[in-house]
Amino acid sequence: MVSIGIDLGGTKIVGAVFDSKGNILNKAFCLLEGRSGREVGGLVKDVISKLSSS
Questions:
Q1: Which of 29, 39, 44, 47 could disulfide-link 35, Cβ–Cβ 3.0 to 4.6 Å?
Q2: pLDDT, average across residues 9-13
């Protein structure tokens, strides 16, 4: 089983896929560049898509 973790900070979103032992299998990030609200939600979705496709 794998898990996806998302870190939404003030300047970027970082996501990672972890195996059952906590090892990082894949990592992706996106800069916020002053975006907020729905735009940030869309970026979170993009990061999850990047992680899911690899």
A1: 39
A2: 96
d(CA 18, CA 9): 19
List the beta bridge partners of residue 28: 15
Domain range holding 34?
A: 3-53
Number of domains comprising the chain:
1
Please report, for residues 21, 36, 52, the alpha-carbon distance to residue 30 in angstroms, rounded to integers and kept in the order given: 26, 13, 15
Say what the pTM is: 0.84
- Measured from the Cβ of residue 43, the count of other Cβ atoms closer than 10 Å reads 19
Band of the pLDDT at 16, cuts 50, 70, 90? very high
Q: What is the pLDDT of residue 53?
A: 85
